[in-house]
Amino acid sequence: MLSVESKRYVLLQEYRLHICMYFYLKEGGSFVHVGISSSTINHQARSKIKNIQKSSFQIATTTNHQQLRRNAHIISMHWLIRWLTNSSLLAWTILFCLSAATSSFSTTNMADFPPPKDYSHLIFETKQDNTKWFHERGPLWQGQAFSLQIKEVLYHQKSLFQDVLVFDSEHHGKVLVLDGVIQCTERDEFSYQEMMAHIPLYAHPDPKKVLVIGGGDGGVLREIARHPGVEEIVICELDKDVIDVSKKYLPFMAKGFDDPRVKVNIMDGAKFMEENQSSFDVIITDSSDPVGPACVLFETPFYKAMHGSLREGGIICTQGECVWLHVNLIQPLVKAITSLFTTVEYAYCTIPSYPSGQIGFIIASKGGKGCKVPTRTPEASVQKELRYYTPDIHQASFVLPAFAERAIFGSDR
Amino acid sequence: MLSVESKRYVLLQEYRLHICMYFYLKEGGSFVHVGISSSTINHQARSKIKNIQKSSFQIATTTNHQQLRRNAHIISMHWLIRWLTNSSLLAWTILFCLSAATSSFSTTNMADFPPPKDYSHLIFETKQDNTKWFHERGPLWQGQAFSLQIKEVLYHQKSLFQDVLVFDSEHHGKVLVLDGVIQCTERDEFSYQEMMAHIPLYAHPDPKKVLVIGGGDGGVLREIARHPGVEEIVICELDKDVIDVSKKYLPFMAKGFDDPRVKVNIMDGAKFMEENQSSFDVIITDSSDPVGPACVLFETPFYKAMHGSLREGGIICTQGECVWLHVNLIQPLVKAITSLFTTVEYAYCTIPSYPSGQIGFIIASKGGKGCKVPTRTPEASVQKELRYYTPDIHQASFVLPAFAERAIFGSDR
After folding, report:
1. SS3 for B376?
2. A390 vs B383: CB contact, 8 Å cut-off?
3. Which residues of A touch B148 (CB under 8 A)?
4. Is residue A210 within 8 Å of residue A358, measured between CB atoms?
5. Which of A154, A413, B228, B240 fits a 20 to 30 Å CA distance from A117?
């Protein structure tokens, strides 16, 4: 008999695997899954796949397991056991039994939370003054919630990948919400976008080619476009709806797409990087939280893919969650990629509309001496337009509170 | 006919004056107020005074106007006009007409918000999962709210001065709330307390006598007590209930009171400073927001009182609100006290449970070259116990985002 924790763990592993499979399926395709799942687990997993409405879920058809390269650690174990047992079905069965038994299946623990199912409860009206609020609750920030007062809901649809909500707020301008989580508000988005783009770009002596993964709102593109030396800006966004919605409702960010150097790919960033080895000076991953489809972006294989796609001397900057909430998620990831990159550092900026009012960045380099000190500074005309970034705050943003420094980098630092 | 804004302004000025008067009244005392107030305004002002349940409000009795020294700018104008007109009643009348007409009565605008009346709406239960939440809404952070999930309400009473609530939260430990505003949570209070105490103390070469105004929870005392060189720690807290409640429910902070160097005064800090000129090396004002009784702590006369009570080379550190919300309140205050102190600087720390996830400090010195670089560093044994402060974060905390630097100190910085 499996414990509740083990059952939950299996469900999560299954969910992540299914999402991976899903990304690699052709329209209408299907895949086999055989494991130890109880009917409850299967029911839940099935409902997830149905939720994203691309393929019908069938437990009868085979598909090409080789396509599941992204979850390399799962697949390699599968192939090993398959080779030992000479049976694919048996291999999956053993694999999931193992997963449930050891609870140490994943190299990191970034994805230990199932995505919420329904977001209707996130909008509520108060009885006292009949004001309407968006109430942001999530498994990654239990027991706390940030709320914004809604003036008008402008858009609310499910895309192929996620729940997309845009509303006009009373005091924070337009707000983009994906899967119930605030991605940006017009009032404070500049802080995140500027720091995410300018820390790696001003740390790099001469960035020519820049890759953005995610970031479909265009905000990071807008900031990269401020660098005249950059010749090519490629963006890989999985969800075309995010781009379309941003162009319609969030032009202050989506104007980033107007720059002629920007090339848009609606595709999976990991796949693109595999096909473009040693190609980029800077890679920026502007992702949502590690819940649902974005889970894989917080795992070692994805960082290996970024490393492979970087030129020598290149720098990556990825959304790195919050030290007040997620040191237990950040630390193993930072540790896991330390052997991969020459330097791995962590910076942060304040941004009121993100959980706990700040967000961090994992900044790593392939060669070089680290990114804490900018090698270039903004032209006066550019600095005038920036609202958060300065060369001073570049350096200050790497200075962590004692508890975070200890937890992420160990007590000797 | 007064405009709505003017009426509101008069109400606020009146409210602030009444609070000042109230503090100086004996139990059962009363005071006269004659002005241009409409009945609505009087009704509102009256209800405020009643709310704090110390004195009945009468518009018929006189009191000693000389006691109103704290609102010096109002009082001095009153005396000037009284001298000119030879009538106290007429003086007050002219004064308030003038206030309404010019709307430039106050040297700063820190107090332009009336306190909320009732806090019952701040606790609500969600229908979806029957969880109980404390919902922090306030006039100083319109359109946004931070919520904490409640495990159990431990204490909820009105003190002489304010509404005092203590609850145990699901994920943030014990929480103290005054007048509907979170003052500290067990999970993150160390950030604020450490930075508020250690920035001025480590900036000062040899602090012997330290004064704390407010800070009845004891957290700042706990941090000051880490400095072996400090010989005397005086605290002036107006509200004894806050101390008593903290000792009972928040011992992790209230243990600050246990240090034998601590002397507790239940009194108004401004009065104490007047009686103790040139006495302290460091003065720390750990106040609530400028709503209600704490308004006066955000005005120039209070800073003059601190300056007077500082020894040469002394440093003050006061709660300075948040750059994401209050630059329009911080900037005029910083400007107003620049001529008073040798250096006026602004630092901040991150703290998830404060509005927008951070809080700032106004740090000013009487002599000296500023406080951005610590003159001393913590002993290894002390540093080990600190969870936020390090000498590096001391310096980094003064580096403001571009927008805040421009707004508070002007674009030339």
Report:
1. coil
2. no
3. 143-144
4. no
5. A154
Per-residue pLDDT of chain A (413 residues; tens, 9 = 90+): 333 333 443 344 444 444 444 444 443 343 433 332 223 333 334 444 433 322 222 222 222 232 333 344 455 555 566 666 666 666 666 655 554 443 322 222 333 344 445 566 566 666 567 788 888 888 888 899 898 999 999 999 999 888 999 999 999 999 999 988 999 999 999 999 999 999 999 999 999 999 999 999 999 999 999 999 999 999 999 999 999 999 999 999 999 999 999 999 999 999 999 999 999 999 999 988 877 667 777 788 899 999 999 999 999 999 999 999 999 889 999 999 999 999 999 999 999 999 999 999 999 999 989 999 999 999 999 999 999 999 999 999 999 999 999 999 986 54
Q: Is A217 a catalytic residue?
A: no
The dihedral of CA B165, B169, B175, B177: what is its sign?
negative
Angle between helices B323-338 and B402-409 (to 10 degrees): 30
Predicted confidence at residue B122, as pLDDT, reads 63
| Residue A225 buriedness (CB in 10 A; 0-12 / 13-18 / 19+) | buried
Contacts of B171 in chain A (CB under 8 A): 142-144
pLDDT in tens, B2-24: 333 334 433 444 444 444 444 44
Closest CA to A219 of A198, A238, A200: A198
Q: Please tell me the distance from the alpha carbon of residue B253 to that of residue A83, in angstroms, as a whole number.
A: 60
How far is A181 from chain B, CA to nearest CA, in Å? 15
Q: Give dist(CA A248, CA A214) in Å, integer.
A: 18
Q: Per residue in A233-272, pLDDT tens?
A: 999 999 999 999 999 999 999 999 999 999 999 999 999 9
**Rounded to an integer, what distance in angstroms lies between the CA atom of residue B189 and that of residue B193?**
6
Distance of CA A78 to the CA centre of its chain: 26
pTM of the model: 0.75
Q: State the nearest Cα–Cα gap between A134 and chain B, in angstroms.
A: 9
Q: Residue B62: exposed, middle, or buried by beta-carbon count in 10 A (0-12, 13-18, 19+)?
A: exposed
All residues at 6 or more sequence positions from A379 whose CB lies less than 8 Å from its CB, including other chains: none
Nearest CA in chain B to A173: B143
Cα separation of B193 and B224, whole Å?
Answer: 9
For B241, phi and psi rounded to 5 degrees? Answer: -60, -35
Which entry of A286, A289, A392, A412 is annotated as an active-site residue? A286
- Burial degree of B98 (CB within 10 A; 0-12, 13-18, 19+): middle
Is residue A183 within 8 A of residue A177, CB to CB? The reply is yes
List of chain B residues whose C-beta atoms are within 8 Å of the C-beta of residue A356: 350, 352, 357
Q: Would you say residue B375 has pLDDT above 90?
A: yes
Contacts 24+ apart (CB under 8 A), A248-251: A248/A155, A249/A154, A249/A155, A249/A166, A249/A174, A249/A176, A250/A166, A250/A174, A250/A176, A250/A184, A250/A186, A250/A217, A250/A218
Reported as a single tens digit per residue, the pLDDT across A7-32 is: 443 344 444 444 444 444 443 343 43
Which of B126, B144, B191 is the best mutation test for A, with the most CBs of A within 10 A? B144
Query: In angstroms, what separates the C-alpha of A409 from chain B's closest C-alpha?
Result: 14
> In this predicted structure, what is the pLDDT of residue A253?
97
Contact B255, B224 (CB under 8 A): no
Count chain A–chain B contacts defined by CB atoms under 8 A.
130
Amino acid at B71: N
Reading the block at residue B352, the tokens are 């998830």
